[in-house]
Amino acid sequence: MAGSERGCPELQGSQLLWTHEACSWTAKSADYRALQELAYVNHAGVPVESIYVLMTAFPLVLMAHQSCGPLGTPAPPLAKALWDTVVVVLPLTFHFSAHLEQPLLLLLLATSILELRRCSKGGLSWQATFSLDNDRLRFVSEYRALVMMSTCVAILAVDFSSVFSRAQAKTEEFGYSLMDVGTGSIIFSSGVCTMPKRGGASRLYKIMKLWPVLLIGFVRAALMWGIDYHVPPGEYGIHWNFFFTIAVISLVSTATDLSALASATAASLALGAYQFYLSWLGGANFVLHAERLGLFTANREGILSSAGYLSLHWFGVAVGSTLRNSGALRCVLQLFLLAAAGYFVNLTLSFAGLEASRRMCNLPYVLFTVSLNAWVLALLGSVDLLAGRPRTAMSLSVAGVQDSMLPVFLFANLLTGAVNLLLQPLMVPFWPAMAVMFGYCLLWSVPAAMLRMKKKKLKFW
After folding, report:
1. N or C, where is the chain less crowded by C-beta within 10 Å?
2. Structural domain includes residue 29
3. Separation between Cα atoms, residue 63 and residue 188, nearest integer Å
């Protein structure tokens, strides 16, 4: 499947074709369910290098925001939030969903170059420091928020086949795609932002506070079953969902509370043992091809992949510690080196016949995710070092999403479900689909920006 293929699905005999002529808005319920069963299957994916290129939108969008700047003080709060969304969120929506990736990248690049020429007068030095936001490294906060924002864009965009390339949907067994990036990046970024524990509440108390995430997982599973919502079982299984994975990672990481060095060691050991099970004990064949006869086998993807995701989180903890304890320029260089090392090791594994699989969260997928996120962090760190001081205020929508990460993700999931119940997204033409995407992004980004202006956060624990 070519990465550029878009359009609405149409069955011609036993073959599923994608044409814009098939965008007829609606189809019979039975026919639409049959199309859904086939429309999300992606055996091809895209070249891994294209994912790295896609991620360059993050620093470019931030530089464009710095160039445009926020609205002045006299503007009402809603106008400020809307302007911020137009400058930051809508370009991300176009970039990660529509046909306009290359022109948009060129436009953002031109704006960013002009901004860099204006700001970077003194060059870089080993004494350079990162800017802070509420005592946290600003570029790390921006990174985590942008990962979540692009994930929120993609989870609905993938349902609009006239907008979103089918080659960027989640891969069925092996390969790379934009939709494969989100879950791993969210888990890795949570590790990066994990701060060292300094006393405070007991571990048992912290574990008990994880109940909202578990509750969300159970409620989502019940709702999906109750309304017969289409969810490809190859994602996590029949009943499992990403909120259960978040709960498992949070539970284990809170219970163990490892240092940076111990986290890296534990991640390596856990990932090595898991890959040994997949490669030499028949685990890969079980995950990909076993029948779903009981509760465990029905949810084997979500349960077993938690080992890989836990390793990702622990690697993130180690990287986050390095960011907080290294010189700024040295840190950026180390991130670029980590990104390159992960890429070339993964390439070597691919030549040896070991391919990345999001469905299993295997060794190559973990290495790819670490490498890709190190690449993004290095780019954002470079932007922070090159930008003038003092920096323009942090984007309201970016900061708002960072402040209320899980509630924003949950709200975006609810909106995605509502759109799929009200429409048949696979059949919607391009421009109406983009209009829905813009409205959807406004609904979760503008409230986040407003909360930031009011200095309020939404937290479950």
Report:
1. C
2. yes
3. 24
Give the Cα separation of 449 and 451 in Å (integer).
5
**In terms of C-beta density within 10 A (0-12 exposed, 13-18 middle, 19 or more buried), how is residue 367 classed?**
buried
3 lies in a domain? no
End-to-end CA distance of the chain: 43
Instruction: Say if residues 42 and 169 touch (Cβ distance below 8 Å).
Output: yes
In which domain, by residue range, is 232 found? Answer: 8-453
The per-residue pLDDT for range 295-354, each reduced to its tens digit, is 999 999 999 999 999 999 999 999 999 998 888 889 999 999 999 999 999 999 999 999
Burial (Cβ within 10 Å: 0-12, 13-18, ≥19) of residue 282:
exposed
Of 290, 283, 320, which Cα lies nearest the Cα of 305?
A: 283
For the record, the structure tokens of 252 come out as 């284990």
Q: How far apart are CA 226 and CA 248, in angstroms?
A: 24
Say if 460 falls within a structural domain. no
Structural domain tally of the chain? 1
Query: What's the CA dihedral at 181, 187, 189, 192 to 10 degrees?
Result: -140
- Domain membership of residue 414 (yes or no) is yes
